[in-house]
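During the no-cost extension, the postdoctoral fellow (Dr. R.K.) reprocessed legacy sequence entries with the updated structure-token encoder. One reprocessed record is reproduced below for audit purposes.
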Amino acid sequence: MLLRSFVSPLAGMTLLTALAGCASTTPSSSPALHVDVPAVAHPQGESPQWWYRNGAAKAAAQGAMQGKAKNVIVFLGDGMSLTTVAAARIFEGQRKGMPGEENLLSWERFPHTAFSKTYNTDSQTPDSAGTMTAIATGVKSHMGAIGVSAGRKGECTPDGSKDLLSWLTLADSAGLATGVVTTARLTHATPAATYAHVSHRDWENDTDLPPEAAAAGCKDIAQQLLAAARFGRGPTVTLGGGRGEFLPIDVRDPEEDDKVGQRLDGRNLVAEWQQAHPQGAYVTNTQQLKAAADAPQLLGLFEYDHMQFEHDRRKDDQGEPSLAELTRAAIRTLSGNPNGFVLLVEGARIDHANHYGNAYRALDETVAMSDAVQAAVEATSRDDTLIVVTADHSHTLNFVGYPVRGNPILGKVRGQGGEDDTPGDLARDQTGLTFTTLSYANGPGYTGASNRQSAGPKKFLHAPSSVEPAEGRPDLSHVDTEHPDYLQEALVPLKSESHGGEDVGIWAIGPGSDAFRGTLEQNTIYHVIVQAAPKLRARLCAAGTCDANGVPVELPKPGNFEKK
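Re-encoded structure tokens follow.
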């Protein structure tokens, strides 16, 4: 059985820490395999085939082919910058009554780490669509691309000429169980990149398709989720938000009576899923999810739009499950397949909170994902399950000043404002005003007056359409900067805080995890996964994509993996 008997989180983490400590002192001995990659001019020479082969070569050179993973779980902290991780570990530690700096999030105990270069083919600072496409398919693509190779955002290729094969659909084709868990809409960029193919991430339901795209035969993301069964059985588990994308306009939302579905094509995709899975369970709250423990398939749509932030969600049985609860439910169902499983779990709202300029919710969501990772560690075996934790891109969150050890991570800096200052109480800038440890380079926390809020510190939720220049910095002396709704100051006024372009982290444990080391192109994550999972690489080899050493090096065509 995959599911293990219950061990306490403390005991499980202690064991994991010990194992990680041993592993981290042992040099990797995985045999390296060489794959020739042609030199190209950048960026014009970077074809989809080149990206695929380049990623395969790096993974093979780092020993990924020695992996023997039966199961793979990828945790994607959307927008989870290294600064977000560092601040969240302190945030969690201080919640436990510790100074905080000595704390570690669950995945920070994993034995193998690397950096991921996140740029899109057309952008230094990327978006979630192009980055998750790289992670899911092994090929970097343009900003806004979902499961297709680089081209023009908004172009329509219904012939499938640009479609890329993800490890989720590959696993389905190979007979493994597959699952997608997210706190965003199931049709949002990150989850969609595992099963859909569109050049524009906004095409979530048929009303979002431009008339010319619909006329050309392009399909919206929501209906592609059901069509994914052409590779096998389709995802066994899909849990997240976004009911509105799946329901027609004449059907009222089951929880929000003032809302109706968004589809104009008359299709009720929830009803279609239920018809295709008569033994499966469709759930919309925690109680229903618990009752569906023995269902062979799960579709959970817990919100009309994105799921609630962890801080805001209703936590009783009529509310939404936590990300950890969703993860446990997914693993329980997926583990029923003796061939193994592949699972994506996205902590999506880390990204949204950072876009809102709200560090409290960003850190709280990161801690919630840490709990989910720990739940996966306890529910699986390190011997047969590869767990990878990473982010798609960064954000502009800053961790600054010289606060004293144990200073509240959301508080004002106590200690020194500069290296040469005399340590004291509240640190002050050169105008004599206090400032916080965390701030954003840009975003809605800009303190000038806006059409939504007056000049001074801003509160969640703030999405202004016009802003006036700030006259100096606000006096924070009597402002509770640790309040969940406080928006950290932002230097540049933007309606939504932007992504960052620096590298993000990769943390891994389990078979093949030692291939994650050094600085990697983001698309290499896919290649480590498929090379470290024998059933995935065997399926690729059966389709004729492998070299003489059995390394999958040729770009696979999705059509070759559909059911015959």
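Residues 359-379 form the longest helix (21 residues). The chain has a mean pLDDT of 94. The remaining legacy entries will be reprocessed before the final report is submitted.
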